């Protein structure tokens, strides 16, 4: 079970690490972080870095493709080489997934045309420009394509995916292992719930 996570400058770290922490516990899992070039990849926040295991050009296939988002994802939507790579890997994958604005990269590659999908709330118009129909659900399954909403939804997506691949009990065991028991102190995690003052700070 090879899981490939493309990483790039300006990604949001949790988009990649959240699913990684879940999917690495699949039986027989091999998780590969792959980048355009060797060397550390810096996140959009500046300090954290990831060290890729492989070059994207050298990755011949995968069972699960997980495309993270972040400001760097938005800037790579016009990258024809990356789009071609995502199409190539997706064509042989059992599951093609995205987290947050990683959906824009799938969309730019033509992989969401005609599908229902989700992404970060700030990227809805861009998502639909690629021919997808936005839905505000946290995780959306469309055949073998799975999209997750913003950042933390990647953990939910990965657990749901484990349930499909290895069964509910395995997914529950992984959820327990990482003690994923969300109890947020505030109920402001979506535009539908957040107070206007919080929205104004992000405007």
Identify the notable features of this structure and list them briefly.
203 residues; lyase activity; two-stranded antiparallel sheet; 19% strand; INH-QAR; EC 4.2.1.-; DJ-1/PfpI family protein; lyase; seven-stranded mixed sheet; alpha/beta; 8 helices
Describe what this molecule looks like in 3D:
It is a single chain. The chain has 203 residues and is of the alpha/beta class. The chain is built from eight helices and eleven strands. It has helices at residues 13-23, 71-75, 80-92, 102-108, 124-129, 153-166, 168-177, 196-202; strands at residues 2-6, 30-35, 41-42, 49-50, 54-55, 64-67, 95-99, 116-117, 133-134, 139-142, 145-148. β10 (139-142) and β11 form a beta hairpin. α1 (13-23) packs parallel to α6 and α6 packs antiparallel against α7 (168-177). The termini are far apart. The model has no long low-confidence stretch (mean pLDDT 96). One of its GO terms (molecular function) is lyase activity. Keywords: Lyase. Its EC number is 4.2.1.-.
